[in-house]
Design goal:
Layout lengths: L2 H11 L4 H5 L5 E4 L16 E13 L6 E7 L4 E6 L3 H7 L5 E6 L1 E4 L2 E5 L2 E4 L5 H4 L1 E4 L4 H5 L4 H14 L10 H6 L5 H9 L4 H33 L10 H10 L6 H14 L6 E6 L5 H14 L3 E5 L3 H15 L6 E4 L5 H13 L4 E4 L13 E7 L6 H9 L6 E6 L5 H7 L4 E5 L10 E6 L3 H13 L3 E5 L7 H18 L5 E4 L5 H12 L5 E4 L12 E6 L7 H8 L10 E6 L5 H12 L3 H12 L5 H6 L14 H17 L9 H12 L10
Parallel strand pairs: 4-7, 10-15, 10-16, 11-13, 11-14, 12-13, 14-15, 17-22, 18-20, 18-21, 19-20, 21-22
Antiparallel strand pairs: 1-9, 2-3, 2-5, 3-4, 5-8, 6-7
Helix pairs in contact: 8-9, 9-24, 10-12, 11-12, 20-22, 21-22
The protein binds adenosine-5'-diphosphate and magnesium ion.
Adenosine-5'-diphosphate binds next to helix 12.
Length: 685
């Protein structure tokens, strides 16, 4: 192809090589093995193929609606073919009375069926038995303007196949191919572009999805197997006195079944030979802190120290206070270390860490500084994981020759498929049960002009002694306007609730001011907290019973659920009110519906994944991993993913030293993929 087209392919689609082109798969296929009658057409039909002639042309409309209409018929009825662009070109090319095959998607306009911008070819092009399914490739406007449309791409791919003299070397081992009845790679690549029928296409799709997911899983499992071999872990072999006293004397309630199960899993991990690396997912309020504390007491009983890392100072203070309160007078020394710990308080804490007198340290990233040295750090708990990346995890390990066990806790439930793909090096536990007696949060959706009744409802709650959050969105691109919205909202609320005290909180404030405002609200000095999403993570004010989310249409599902989780932590019934404008997109309507009908974080996360696709999920963005699967879809291919994970595990078990000739191509392929420049399967290398 010419230079200009090559440049377009580079720039617009990231296609640089024949390989890239080969792996640029069609996004849909259209059956051209059939010809429709014009009289059969309605707006509901997908793409159709027609055979007939143009009787006359007509130019209509002005400006943007200027168009060329060709009146087309096959003798059964008439249909309008319509062009808004390239009118001159079309008029010159097409002739009245000549037989054409027309291909396009019918729609309704002013009560008439029409087809906009159809493909029109000579009738002699029609070869029904050979045509099969026609591939459609995504292209950009820029490409279309230069004639590099889907058809042109199909031609390029078809030329490419003609240039190929050898079969594509197989990338999966024969035993896998036989056992799972897979199409060969060579056949699958040909069929995926030019399938003859649906059955064949599905077999090719299955093979290519299988392969894509298989290598991702092989990579992750291989990495974690490797890590297990490399790192021995501290062994916490006994459940000792303090754990038992806490469990039997201090604990005011029974653990939930899910908490018990997860604690068991952790005990099993830390009593083995390797380092624990476990992710605990638990919906807001599921009691993760307690699980963390029990794990840290295991460390203490076995002569080790523990450290709990949290993303903000407010949270660190809360956690420290909670742990101290729960431990009562058990001989466990808990200390707090954050950026604002005063120098004179620091010295004894640092000393205690070095000589082992401090058992549990709760802190922010200040804990990662070099002058913080532990006597023998046995376990690190990272709360609200997404603020701490892999890098920081690694930094914690570096503090000791034997790395501490790592427990990562997150309240942003990540659908299993995504967790298995993103955090494949972590084992995953799920706390899928809330403590008994929790009342589900009553969630409603109201339109902005109904805020009057909302205010009287809030007043009612506050008069009963409760507190309320009012949250505004804030995004970088729109920061000025968003802050103004927040300020305006704050002023208005101050007017409406002039007999109460209000707090205001946003990310632009100094940390000191933020902490102070948060403290005022937490202590009940103020009744309403107006803020941006800075309160999203972890904050615990059990007395707050109302969460109002302004401009709710601008939040993703997971974020809405996280925000809602800030209430419903006390004994009283809690409420969440989603406020939106009255013009709602289909997508927003769905999100509001899910929020008002479900309180289940996992259900919501699954729905989120389906609505937005994995690329936009919070988990993905925060881990900084671009997600660019070519054919598999994490939302839809969950079963296949789990299945190939086992297949990949089988390969690792069968060929641990990577020296079995039967699997040579598999390891080679993995190496090749990882060397590609657009390798993007995450932080794992
Ligand atoms: P999260 O998982 O959101 O971090 P927390 O650990 O803050 O949840 O727990 C929420 C509340 O539930 C706390 O007040 C805690 O004391 C309480 N809690 C935890 N486990 C149980 C349980 N098994 N039974 C009753 N209450 C519990
Ligand atoms: Mg928590």
């Amino acid at each position: 192809m010419g230079e200009q087209r090559a440049t377009l392919l580079n720039r617009e689609l990231g296609i640089y090589s024949l390989y890239d082109l080969l792996y640029y798969f069609p996004y849909k296929y259209i059956d051209r093995s059939k010809v429709f009658k014009v009289s059969e057409l309605g707006a509901q039909l997908q793409h159709v193929q027609l055979l007939g002639e143009i009787r006359s042309f007509e130019e209509m409309g002005e400006g943007a609606s200027r168009r060329l209409v060709a009146h087309f018929t096959d003798g059964t009825a008439f249909v309008d073919l319509v062009w808004f662009r390239g009118i001159k070109f079309v008029k010159n090319k097409l002739q009245v009375g000549k037989k054409y095959v027309v291909f396009g998607k019918p729609s309704m306009f002013n009560g008439r069926v029409n087809i906009a911008h159809p493909d029109v070819d000579d009738a002699s092009m029609l070869q029904l038995d050979k045509m099969g399914l026609q591939p459609y490739y995504n292209t950009t406007e820029k490409m279309k303007r230069s004639g590099l449309n889907s058809n042109a791409l199909a031609k390029l791919v078809s030329n490419l196949f003609q240039l190929l003299v050898h079969e594509f070397p197989e990338t999966l081992s024969q035993d896998i191919i036989k056992k799972h009845a897979l199409m060969s790679l060579d056949e699958a690549l040909r069929v995926i572009h030019f399938p003859k029928n649906l059955k064949e296409l599905q077999a090719a799709q299955y093979r290519l999805k299988f392969e894509e997911l298989f290598f991702i899983q092989l990579n992750i499992l291989n990495y974690s197997r490797d890590r297990q071999k490399r790192y021995v872990g501290h062994r916490f072999s006994k459940v000792g006195e303090i754990f038992n006293r806490f469990y039997h004397e201090n604990l005011p309630f029974e653990l939930t079944g899910a908490q018990k199960r997860v604690v068991k899993e952790i005990r099993c991990d830390v009593n083995g030979n390797s380092q624990m690396n476990r992710l605990i997912q638990g919906d807001v309020g599921s009691g993760k802190t307690l699980v963390a504390l029990l794990s840290m007491l295991l460390a203490k009983d076995n002569g080790y120290q523990a450290c709990m890392l949290v993303p903000t100072e407010i949270l660190a203070e809360q956690h420290c206070a909670t742990l101290r309160r729960m431990l009562g007078n058990l001989p466990v020394r808990v200390e707090l270390l954050t950026g604002s710990t005063k120098q004179k308080d620091r010295i004894p804490i640092l000393e205690g860490l070095e000589n082992g007198a401090v058992d549990i340290l709760v802190g922010t990233h200040a804990v990662l500084e070099d002058n913080v040295q532990f006597h023998n750090l046995g376990i690190v708990v990272i709360d609200e994981q997404h603020r701490f990346g892999v890098v920081q995890r690694a930094k914690m390990w570096a503090k000791n020759s034997v790395p501490p066990h790592v427990l990562v806790m997150t309240a942003t439930p990540i659908p299993r498929t995504l967790a298995m793909t993103l955090y494949g090096d972590l084992d995953v536990s799920v706390i899928d049960e809330l403590p008994p007696g929790r009342k589900p949060i009553a969630t409603t959706h109201i339109l902005r002009d109904r805020t009057h009744s909302l205010y009287s409802f809030m007043r009612h709650q506050i008069d009963e002694g409760r507190q309320a959050y009012v949250v505004y969105p804030l995004i970088k691109e729109n920061e000025k306007l968003d802050l103004k919205n927040l300020e305006d909202g704050y002023k208005q609320l101050c007017n409406v609730f002039c007999d109460y005290k209000l707090s205001k909180l946003h990310g632009k404030m100094k940390p000191k001011e933020k902490d102070e405002e948060m403290r005022r609200f937490a202590s009940g000095e103020t009744q309403i907290l107006v803020s941006t999403t800075v309160i999203e993570v972890g904050v615990d004010v059990p007395n707050a019973s109302v969460m109002v989310i302004e401009n709710a249409e601008r939040f993703g599902l997971s974020q809405l659920h996280q925000l809602r989780g800030r209430v419903g932590r006390g004994a009283s019934q809690s409420y969440c009110v989603l406020v939106t404008g009255d013009k709602l997109s289909e997508d927003t309507r769905k999100r509001m519906e899910i929020m008002t009908t479900s309180n289940d974080g996992f259900e919501i996360a699954e729905a989120d994944l389906k609505l937005r696709g994995p690329g936009d999920m919070e988990g993905t963005q925060q881990s900084g991993i671009a997600f660019d699967l070519k054919i598999a879809n994490l939302a839809r291919d969950e079963q296949l993913l789990q299945f190939v994970r086992e297949v990949a595990r089988g390969v690792i078990d069968a060929d641990p030293a990577h020296d079995n000739p039967a699997y040579r191509m598999v390891w080679e392929r993995l190496r090749t993929i990882k060397n590609m420049k657009n390798w993007n399967w995450g932080a794992i290398s």
